[in-house]
Amino acid sequence: MHGLRKFRLAVLACIALLPSFLKRPAYRWLFGYRVGKRVHIGLCIIDAEECEIADDVSFGHLNVVLKVKKLVIGDHVRIGHLNIIRGGDEVSLGRYSEIIRMNEINSIPEPDVVNETDPRFLLGEGSIITTGHKIDFTDRVEIGRRTIIGGRNSSLWTHNRQRTRPIEIGSFAYIGSEIRIAPGGSLPSRCVVGIGSVITSKISDEEFLIVGVPAKPVKRLNEDDRFLIERKTRPDLPDDV
Predict the structure, then answer these.
(1) 181 Ramachandran zone, left/alpha/beta (phi>0; psi -120 to 50)
(2) Is the Cα torsion angle 88, 62, 127, 217 positive or negative in sign?
(3) CA triplet 230, 235, 236: central angle to 5 degrees?
(4) Which of 69, 94, 100, 112 reaches 20 to 30 Å from 123, CA-CA?
């Protein structure tokens, strides 16, 4: 079994060296991946038991996807450079979402826990993860549509000693730099989270600025704040996303 695994990775590494127009048929013929039209894949390894990549998806260079059971990438998704996506039952990236660079999205295999886990990472349509963030999805992490994990160096983790709890973030939210979301933390739709905040529980108040350690709603959003969360996350974002 270990030998087969090493052989699979060796074949995937060879495919990574091919030009993009040859990668697509190689993935289809050798691994049964479903790859759409006009998909560009740079120097990357994509290792999934089941893989579906829709039309007009773009992978930059030096991205690594490892040991994902089911990978689903919607149309017009952009994945930048130097991202790692590892493990889990499912990774789903909604259409027009984007993972920019140097992010680590990881699920611990066979964790030592006393509860049932749901290791899935679900990124909503039109949502953005910017730079240098670490996301543990040993349990489910679900991010709604048109939400931005912005700035740098935020951490979301679902695994704490021998227990896990999922994390949920609503739609039309803006999450600033250096945010920490602990297991079971939850953010509502249409909120702004200030730099350095720590979310340790479920917060339900929509249209508020959320700040502090532990974080709490402190001020209702004004018109300028609402513009920040309502504007399109990408210039090419269609109106129906």
Answers:
(1) beta
(2) positive
(3) 115
(4) 112
Beta pairing partners, 210 = 193, 217
Burial 171-210 (b: 16+ CB within 10 A, else e): bbbbbbbebbbbbbbbbbbbbbbbeebbbeeebeebbbbb
Distance of CA 27 to the CA centre of its chain: 22
Model pTM greater than 0.90?
Answer: yes
| 137-to-63, 74, 120, 143 alpha-carbon distances in Å | 18, 20, 6, 12
The SS3 assignment for 131 reads strand
The conformational region for residue 133 under phi > 0 = left, psi -120 to 50 = alpha, else beta, is: beta
Contacts of 85 (CB under 8 A, 6+ apart): 63, 64, 65, 66, 68, 91, 105, 106, 121
The CATH number assigned to the domain with range 2-230 reads 2.160.10.10
The structure tokens listed for 15 are 């495919």
Alpha carbons 25 and 18: distance in angstroms, whole number: 11
d(CA 142, CA 170): 8
pLDDT band at 1 (very low <50, low <70, confident <90, very high): low
